[in-house]
Design goal:
The protein is mainly α. It has helices at residues 28-42, 48-56, 60-65, 68-82, 88-100. The longest helix is centred in the first third of the chain and has 15 residues, at 28-42.
């Protein structure tokens, strides 16, 4: 498969600009997403292949406008809903709760 998520080696995109001393996590929410991956994996809700496949199903425009850990979050949310660990309604309620609390982080 050759999609927007598989750009390695493609020409005309220019160099990758890396931050000097770039941190592993730019925000606390990214740490939580990283931890969610291991919880979902260890809990048997998904495996690495399912995780990557879900990222690859992201619409191209969404994939290109979101960050690395937002890709992870997209995949984890979809896989946990698919596995029945959480419902869409429960997830959206939590998103609304966090938004109402004034948090400026992705759900």
């Amino acid at each position: 498969m050759n999609g927007v998520h598989d750009m390695g080696g493609m020409q005309a995109y220019g160099p990758i600009d890396r931050e000097a001393q770039e941190p592993v996590f730019h925000a606390d929410w990214e740490k939580r997403v990283f931890a969610l991956f291991f919880g979902g994996f260890a809990g048997g809700f998904f495996n690495v292949d399912m995780f990557r496949a879900e990222i690859e199903r992201m619409p191209g425009h969404e994939y290109l406008r979101t960050s690395y850990y937002e890709h992870w979050l997209h995949s984890i949310e979809a896989l946990l809903v698919s596995a029945g660990a959480i419902t869409d309604a429960e997830m959206m309620a939590k998103v609304a709760e966090l938004a109402a609390a004034g948090r400026k982080e992705p759900h």
